[in-house]
Amino acid sequence: MTKTPHVSLLVALVERHARWARLSVTGSTAAWADMPPEFAEMLRHEINNPLTGILGNAEMVLAHRDRLPAAAAKRLEIVVDLAVRLRETIRRLSVTRGIQVPDVVRSA
After folding, report:
1. Which residues of 37-65 are buried (b: 16+ CB within 10 A; e: fewer)?
2. Would 20 be classed as within a structural domain?
3. Which pLDDT tens digit goes with each residue over 10-25?
C-alpha cells in the first residue's frame, strides 16, 4: 500500500494547528482578549469555515470505512478528532471573548 501524501500533509497541518490552539488555550488568552470584536469574529469565522469542510468531508469518507484500508480509516479518525479539538478551542476562545457561537453537535 502506498502512502497518500495528501493525507499525511493534511494530518500534519491539522496537528500543527491543534498544537497552536492548545498553546493558545493553555497559555495567555490576553492576545485574543485584546483583539477588536470584529477581528475576533472574522478570525473565528475564517477558521471554522474551512474546518467545517475538513470535518464534514472526513466524516463522509469515514461513512464508507468498510471500503478503506484500516490505516486510512485510522488517519481519518485522527483528522476528525483534531478538527473537533480545534473547533472546541475556537469555541472556548470565542466564549472568553464574548462572541456568540452556536452549539454544533458532532455527527460522527
Report:
1. eeebbebbeebbeebeebbeebbebbeee
2. yes
3. 676 677 666 666 655 5
